[in-house]
Amino acid sequence: MKISEVMQEIKSVNPALAAKLESQGYCLVEGDNKALICINRFLKVLVKCGNGRFTCPVQDLDHFLKVIGQSKEEYVRSVEIAISD
After folding, report:
1. pLDDT of 28-54, one tens digit each?
2. Per-residue pLDDT for 25 more than 60?
3. Which of 1, 36, 44, 68 is found 20 to 30 A from 29 (Cα to Cα)?
4. How far is CA 56 from its chain centroid?
5. Which residues have C-beta within 8 Å of that of residue 47, sequence separation ≥ 6?
6. Strand partners, 48
7. For residue 58, what is the DSSP state?
8. What global pTM score does this model have?
9. How many CB atoms are closer than 10 A to CB 31?
10. Ramachandran region, residue 76 (left: φ > 0; alpha: ψ -120 to 50; beta: rest)
């Protein structure tokens, strides 16, 4: 999905969240994922870790963050809305 399509979907439900995400460069901070789940729980997010990256639905983000947090060798650098061309 293109970022303009994703942001339009978010803006139609929660304009304040859309503006916040745009100001954050489409990066999520704590709590943003809960608001996004209410809009589209299958929205893909890009998780950047110390040793790689992966995408997952926003509904599964908390699970993966917990798993990564239990590792002594891995960490999360950022979480962003996943986009395509």
Report:
1. 999 999 999 999 999 999 999 998 999
2. yes
3. 1
4. 9
5. 53, 54, 55, 56, 61, 64, 65, 68, 76, 78, 79
6. 53, 78
7. G
8. 0.91
9. 8
10. beta
